[in-house]
Amino acid sequence: MNIRKADRNDVKDISRIHALSWKKAYKGMLSQDYLDNLEEDFWVSAFDNWITSKALTVQLIFDKNEPIGCIAYGKSRDNTLPNWAEIVSIYVLPEYFGRGCGKSLLHYALSDLKTMGYDHVFLWVLDKNHQAQIFYKKNGFSETNEQIPCEISGQQLIDYRYTLQLT
Question: How much is the pLDDT for 167?
Answer without folding.
Answer: 78
